[in-house]
């Protein structure tokens, strides 16, 4: 992999590093995926981030175990990868390679500009773990849940501000929305109740827009920290941001950039 | 403004209704007195006074005059309630509270009376937040009986010059000693920390000194922990008046200019820790 | 004692204090005829830093003839005096340093704009002179770089990183993070930076080897060098011998002396005899009452590379030859095999200095001396002279 437009890719990786300490990086001939399967150990939170390789790399070569299973799955620390990419942001060129060093590594090698004629080379060996094929079936694209409501999200910055404040006041938040473009965030404690009402958000054309009462709210109570983590990492405003709610079950957040898509699942608490 | 239409019908029962185009005008000044959670709100025809106390020997007051508000309606002569200030500030800043170009949070604040919550309607860019904050029985605030006729010494300084001193205060010192004197050192702040002492002397002729009226030399010590919170008021103020009375009680009055250039006040009272008075 | 600093030099003095605070908790102050010396040493005595401000640095510098005064203060309290370096430049017109021996107070008075006078009376303790014994001139490897070159280098390493390893060849310098043990290595990001000789103002490498030292103190010096724009000269020798970082101009000199890692394992395995052989008879310092002094010393013998990381360096791990300087460095390959050697199991067991000298002949021309370590907690420190 060569010549990563680093600002963007490190932005994606930084976003992911806010969401999880480790995740799976799955490489296929056309795509890169960052995956966190919704296991109990990470509080049931799941993530699926998809990048089109040809938007990020001038050159991209990969060879999986066989032509039949042409993919590579690695366990990576997004934080480590993000830091490596951050320090090479102003590089003339960047290469990312899977290497065998003291252990398997993603090696980020960059040519840095200097004041002198020679350029300076920096390499970061980010340790990874190669995931054997028998475990691959865990890393399939999650099935779109059969949601009750799908709605566009308000500007993420405003959403973040509201969620940040609510986090100061409470541990849990109720998120509710309907097919009339309305979404509410609510918290309630012994001291205070706060509800923020967004309207005219619009509903994506997919989903259950035909059935039922458009005013009917689907709701889910979630751990505020998980929603906050998702919002804290958002450095770029996506072209589309959406939220699907399965009533009292799960909140499914989707961000679409031109060349990246990110899905995030937050389970509802009872 | 959508807010005013929204809740007009409810107004009938409210004993206090206050509208503000920019919630920051209120949240900023309240931030300057946050040293304890509990705050006493006192509304009179003059405006709003918010009081916070610590250890019965320090009191911080924020004054927001009625004409700062676009609407300020009182059904009674005086309305008093107690509220959690930290919670109130989180509510007031629900949309971030940082100034963005041309965007401000509008606020409507309603209180129906004893036993009811304080209700806030906040609106920014068409998004509305409703907060209901529980209120409680107000405690009686301390009367420091500080009257201007008893003032021994008074100086008015541009806040700029005190900010530096307060940011550098040696916090290992338990007390902050303030000396005011008609002769040298005129106005002195001293700390006595683990590794030595420090004195900050302000000349009476400095262009930072707007007024210097000291009648006799007075040296008093105040608990650092009680005075440190006043740094927040200092930070947003442009001038500060430092006064002591014959008992050594300290009054710090801060003049605060909000985003729209209007003026509010914050006042701190603090009892002296121990007296080391000299003739 | 009267020292008066004015204008931009107040900030330089403040920066020096801040950069010394990266070393130790105490500031040693020693007014001398040659100027005012400010020094610090870390608790494990593996890092020492010293600034000497010449009389010309001051707008007034007078110390009573025969003044034999040395003290130490909590460095935090001195930092308070120079708290905000940004405003220091704008607001402070004059800084006066005075001594009240009666009250055991060192007084810093800052005359600021708008008639504000800040007086800090800091209590001090008498101390012996703190002086490291080091000899820059005998170091085999010397290079000098603009502070920016080095700042841009260390920025690639996380602030939590403790040590870096420099590997030197005729044409290049490699910098990489030093990772202690194997378990850590499989988790840690290994970063390596390669700088060409022409990035340096001066690059004179006689000895091809790898030297590992602490990054925090190195950053401390860079803090000072960057703000004053002074180039940094680095003097390096064998692994285990201290590395010296210097900044100088006509009115000041700063030296940071940092212990480097020697290869313990290597030392134990193959160098017992050599070790003993190289032990020299104690010198003059040895005869002083050592309890009064802070003495630590260098104990390195191992000429082998100080780290276990670049696999190609494993080639050097042969019994030391007296002419190890002739060994060459082979270009490392990108991927390599597991290093057979254990990495050193204890950090900086070689501590190097902190020897105390009588105040007068200040700089020893003697290289590292052989002494018992008093300040170190390691068991088997012995010394090697250059």
From TrEMBL, chain A:
GO terms for biological process: double-strand break repair via homologous recombination; meiotic DNA integrity checkpoint signaling; mitotic DNA replication checkpoint signaling; mitotic intra-S DNA damage checkpoint signaling; nucleotide-excision repair; response to radiation; telomere maintenance. The keyword DNA-binding does not apply. It comes from the Eukaryota. Gene3D superfamilies: 3.70.10.10. It is found in: Cytoplasm, Cytosol; Nucleus. InterPro entries: DNA_clamp_sf (IPR046938), HUS1 (IPR016580), HUS1/Mec3 (IPR007150). GO terms for cellular component: checkpoint clamp complex; cytosol; nucleolus; site of double-strand break. Keywords: Cytoplasm, DNA damage, Nucleus. Coiled coil: none annotated. Belongs to the HUS1 family. Component of the toroidal 9-1-1 (RAD9-RAD1-HUS1) complex, composed of RAD9A, RAD1 and HUS1. The 9-1-1 complex associates with LIG1, POLB, FEN1, RAD17, HDAC1, RPA1 and RPA2. The 9-1-1 complex associates with the RAD17-RFC complex. HUS1 interacts with POLB, HDAC1, FEN1, PCNA and RAD9B. HUS1 does not interact with RAD17. Interacts with DNAJC7. Component of the 9-1-1 cell-cycle checkpoint response complex that plays a major role in DNA repair. The 9-1-1 complex is recruited to DNA lesion upon damage by the RAD17-replication factor C (RFC) clamp loader complex. Acts then as a sliding clamp platform on DNA for several proteins involved in long-patch base excision repair (LP-BER). This is Checkpoint protein. The lineage of its organism: Eukaryota, Metazoa, Chordata, Craniata, Vertebrata.
TrEMBL record, chain B:
The keyword Cell membrane does not apply. GO terms for cellular component: checkpoint clamp complex. It is found in: Nucleus. Keywords: DNA damage, DNA repair, Nucleus. One of its GO terms (biological process) is DNA repair. InterPro entries: Cell_cycle_checkpoint_Rad1, DNA_clamp_sf, Rad1_Rec1_Rad17. Component of the toroidal 9-1-1 (RAD9-RAD1-HUS1) complex, composed of RAD9A, RAD1 and HUS1. The 9-1-1 complex associates with LIG1, POLB, FEN1, RAD17, HDAC1, RPA1 and RPA2. The 9-1-1 complex associates with the RAD17-RFC complex. RAD1 interacts with POLB, FEN1, HUS1, HUS1B, RAD9A and RAD9B. Interacts with DNAJC7. Interacts with RHNO1; interaction is direct. Component of the 9-1-1 cell-cycle checkpoint response complex that plays a major role in DNA repair. The 9-1-1 complex is recruited to DNA lesion upon damage by the RAD17-replication factor C (RFC) clamp loader complex. Acts then as a sliding clamp platform on DNA for several proteins involved in long-patch base excision repair (LP-BER). Belongs to the rad1 family. This is Cell cycle checkpoint protein RAD1. The lineage of its organism: Eukaryota, Metazoa, Chordata, Craniata, Vertebrata.
From TrEMBL, chain C:
The keyword Nuclease applies. Residues 331-340, 377-386 have a biased composition (Acidic residues). Residues 269-288, 301-386 are annotated as: Disordered. Keywords: DNA damage, Exonuclease, Hydrolase, Nuclease, Nucleus, Phosphoprotein. It catalyses: Exonucleolytic cleavage in the 3'- to 5'-direction to yield nucleoside 5'-phosphates. It is found in: Nucleus. Residues 274-283 have a biased composition (Basic and acidic residues). Residues 362-373 have a biased composition (Polar residues). One of its GO terms (molecular function) is double-stranded DNA 3'-5' DNA exonuclease activity. InterPro entries: DNA_clamp_sf (IPR046938), Rad9 (IPR026584), Rad9/Ddc1 (IPR007268). GO terms for cellular component: checkpoint clamp complex. GO terms for biological process: cellular response to ionizing radiation; DNA repair; DNA replication checkpoint signaling; mitotic intra-S DNA damage checkpoint signaling. Pfam families: Rad9 (PF04139). Component of the 9-1-1 cell-cycle checkpoint response complex that plays a major role in DNA repair. The 9-1-1 complex is recruited to DNA lesion upon damage by the RAD17-replication factor C (RFC) clamp loader complex. Acts then as a sliding clamp platform on DNA for several proteins involved in long-patch base excision repair (LP-BER). Belongs to the rad9 family. This is Cell cycle checkpoint control protein. It comes from Fundulus heteroclitus (Killifish).
């Amino acid at each position: 992999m060569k010549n990563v437009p680093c600002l963007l890719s490190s932005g994606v990786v930084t976003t992911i590093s806010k969401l999880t300490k480790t995740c799976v990086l799955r490489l296929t001939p056309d795509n890169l995926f960052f995956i966190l399967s919704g296991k109990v150990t990470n509080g049931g939170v799941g993530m699926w981030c998809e990048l089109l390789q040809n938007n990020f790399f001038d050159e991209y070569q990969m060879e999986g175990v066989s032509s039949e299973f042409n993919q590579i799955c690695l366990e990576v620390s997004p934080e480590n990868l993000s830091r490596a990419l951050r320090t090479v942001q102003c590089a003339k060129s960047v290469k990312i390679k899977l290497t065998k060093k003291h252990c398997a590594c993603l090696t980020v090698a960059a040519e840095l500009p200097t004041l002198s004629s020679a350029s300076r080379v920096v390499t970061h060996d980010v340790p990874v773990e190669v995931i054997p094929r028998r475990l691959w079936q865990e890393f399939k694209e999650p099935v779109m849940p059969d949601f009750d409501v799908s709605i566009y999200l308000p500007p993420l910055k405003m959403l973040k501000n509201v969620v940040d404040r609510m986090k100061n006041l409470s541990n849990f938040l109720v998120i509710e929305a309907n097919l009339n473009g309305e979404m509410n965030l609510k918290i309630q404690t012994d001291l205070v109740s706060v509800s923020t009402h967004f309207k005219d958000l619009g509903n994506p054309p997919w989903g259950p827009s035909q059935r039922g009462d458009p005013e009917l709210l689907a709701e889910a109570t979630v751990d505020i920290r998980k929603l906050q983590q998702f919002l804290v990492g958002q450095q770029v405003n996506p072209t589309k941001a959406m939220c699907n709610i399965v009533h009292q079950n799960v909140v499914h957040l989707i961000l679409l950039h031109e060349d990246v898509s990110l899905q995030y699942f937050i389970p509802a608490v009872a | 403004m959508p807010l005013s239409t929204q809740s007009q019908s409810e107004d009938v029962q409210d004993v206090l209704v206050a509208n503000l185009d920019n919630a920051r005008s209120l949240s900023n000044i309240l931030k300057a007195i946050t040293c304890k959670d509990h705050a006493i709100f006192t509304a009179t025809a003059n405006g709003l006074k918010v009081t916070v106390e610590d250890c019965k020997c320090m009191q911080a007051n924020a004054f927001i005059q009625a004409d700062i508000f676009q609407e300020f309606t009182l059904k009674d002569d005086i309305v008093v309630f107690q509220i959690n200030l930290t919670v109130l500030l989180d509510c007031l800043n629900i949309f971030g509270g940082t100034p963005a170009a041309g965007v401000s949070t509008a606020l409507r604040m309603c209180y129906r009376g004893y036993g009811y919550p304080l209700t806030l309607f906040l609106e920014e860019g068409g998004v509305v937040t409703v907060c209901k904050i529980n209120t409680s029985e107000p405690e009686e605030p301390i009367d420091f009986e500080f009257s201007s006729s008893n003032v021994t010494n008074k100086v008015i300084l541009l806040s700029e010059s005190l900010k530096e001193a307060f940011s550098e205060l040696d916090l290992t010192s338990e007390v902050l000693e303030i000396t005011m004197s008609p002769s040298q050192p005129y106005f002195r702040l001293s700390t006595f920390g683990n590794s030595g002492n420090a004195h900050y002397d302000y000349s009476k002729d400095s262009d930072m000194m707007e007024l210097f009226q000291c009648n006799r030399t007075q040296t008093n010590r105040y608990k650092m922990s009680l005075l440190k919170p006043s740094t927040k008021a200092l930070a947003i103020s442009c001038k500060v008046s430092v006064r002591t009375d014959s008992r050594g009680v300290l009054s710090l009055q801060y003049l605060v200019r909000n985003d729209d250039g209007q003026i509010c006040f914050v006042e701190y009272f603090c009892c002296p820790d121990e007296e080391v008075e000299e003739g | 004692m009267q020292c008066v600093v004015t204008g931009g030099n107040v900030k330089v003095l403040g920066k020096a204090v801040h950069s010394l605070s990266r070393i130790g908790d105490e500031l040693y102050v020693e007014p001398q005829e040659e100027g005012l010396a400010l020094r610090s040493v870390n608790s494990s005595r593996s890092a020492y830093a010293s600034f000497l401000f010449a009389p010309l640095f001051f707008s007034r510098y007078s110390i009573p003839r025969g003044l034999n005064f040395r003290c130490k203060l909590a460095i935090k309290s001195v930092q308070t005096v120079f708290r905000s370096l940004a405003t220091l430049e704008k607001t402070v017109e004059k800084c006066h340093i005075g001594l009240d021996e009666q009250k055991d107070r060192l007084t810093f008075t800052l005359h600021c704009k708008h008639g504000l006078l800040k007086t800090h009376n800091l209590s001090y303790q008498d101390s012996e002179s703190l002086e490291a014994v080091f000899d820059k001139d005998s170091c085999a490897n010397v290079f000098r770089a603009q502070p920016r070159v080095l700042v841009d280098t260390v920025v690639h390493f996380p602030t939590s990183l403790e040590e870096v390893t420099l590997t030197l060849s005729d044409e290049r310098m490699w910098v990489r993070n030093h990772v202690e043990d194997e378990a850590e290595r499989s988790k840690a990001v290994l970063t390596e930076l390669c700088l060409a000789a022409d990035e340096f103002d001066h690059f004179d490498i006689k000895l091809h080897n790898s030297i590992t030292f602490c990054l925090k103190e190195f950053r401390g010096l860079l803090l000072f060098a960057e703000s004053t724009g002074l180039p940094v000269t680095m003097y390096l020798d064998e692994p285990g011998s201290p590395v010296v970082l210097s900044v100088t101009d006509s009115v000041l000199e700063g030296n940071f002396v940092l212990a480097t890692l020697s290869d313990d394992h290597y030392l134990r395995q193959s160098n017992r005899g050599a070790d003993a052989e190289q032990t020299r008879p104690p010198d003059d310092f040895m005869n002083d009452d050592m309890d009064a002094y802070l003495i630590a010393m260098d104990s390195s013998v191992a000429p082998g590379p100080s780290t276990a990381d670049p696999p190609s360096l494993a080639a050097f791990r042969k019994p030391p030859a007296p002419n190890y300087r002739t060994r060459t460095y082979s270009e490392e390959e990108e991927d390599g095999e597991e290093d057979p050697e254990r990495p050193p199991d204890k950090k900086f067991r070689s501590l190097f200095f902190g020897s105390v000298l009588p105040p007068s002949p200040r700089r020893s021309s003697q290289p590292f001396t052989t002494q018992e370590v008093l300040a170190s907690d390691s068991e088997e420190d012995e010394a090697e002279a250059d």
